[in-house]
# Entry
Amino acid sequence: MTLNRRRLIGYLGAHAGLAAAAALPAPFAIPPARADDGLRPIRSAALEGGRRFGAAVATPRLADDLSFRNLVLRECDIIVPEWEMKWYSVEKQPGLYDYGACDDLAAFAAVNGKDLRGTTLIWHLGLPDWVKSRLKETGGWDLALTYMTSVMNRFSGIKSWDVVNEAVEPFDGREDGLRQSPWLDAFGPDYVAEGFKRAAEIAPRAQLVYNDYGMEHDAPWNHNRRKAILQLIDRVRKAGGRIDALGLQAHLRLGDPWDPNGFGSFLRQVEAVGIRPIVTELDVRADRMLGDDKAVDGKVADMYTSFLETVFGNSRCDTVITWGLSDNYSFHRRRNRQDRPLPFDENYQPKKAAEALVRALLGAK
# Structure
């Protein structure tokens, strides 16, 4: 992203740890691949395969954990804020914006030649507490537009934005498949299209993404989500909204039904309406099959392989993001400390999942 020198210096000065990383020798502060593992960086494999790879990162981890920071620098071409850009983080009190954590992440990305990805603007779980009671009031939509305008203009160099996140929930029983949420309660079903229209006005050259979960596996509820999402895309476009890509969160789980043919058919349906699928939050939970780590890691890697081969074989997907990079910081470990969902273990050593990512991305040429 583009930052002027004064703003960049200001960002770096706010966080000494990130400033130190930025001050490492030119061209970038990227450490070489370890001699002991022999595995090429995932980002390198992705670029050779005509795609890009990145991960969600929390700013404090970069400042406090040198080994993790080096892993991110070596493996990632794209950095995604875990929470730093969400409304509840940047405007905890009305009109008082705090971009400190996200500014630090933006600076870290900029000086190290990484792209920052934007997430997420409209999300039912991303609202500050004070907003929830005010959306229905006169001027409620203006509050939302002010936040969108503020964050998108501040990080105007971002090339891809998750504009709306998780707007469907067929279990809520609506004919249109939309989630019963504060957004829907306040603005009705048109809020999704209106959000995309506004995003297109603010960032006309950026990729605008609808992001959601539960499309990948093969249970009946997954089929219902696929149907609801296709219907939503159709309604938004008919209403004049621009959606460029469908974000597949891809929080996969060993033991859930998986049918590559069925999922591939869905991806082709998405492509048929001119929407590019991208992978935005990939990980593979193994909490139902824990035991021998090597055996578990092999099954997790097989799922990475099958999923990515299906995506690449049935779509123009050009971006793969994992939700985290090391098991050490996976949010799934809040539920089960033994889970192993990410490409690198708690000691930042590559697992079979990292090898699977490299092979799949190289094979995608």
Notes: The chain has a mean pLDDT of 91. The chain is about 45% helix and 15% strand. The CA atoms of residues 28 and 112 lie 5 Å apart.
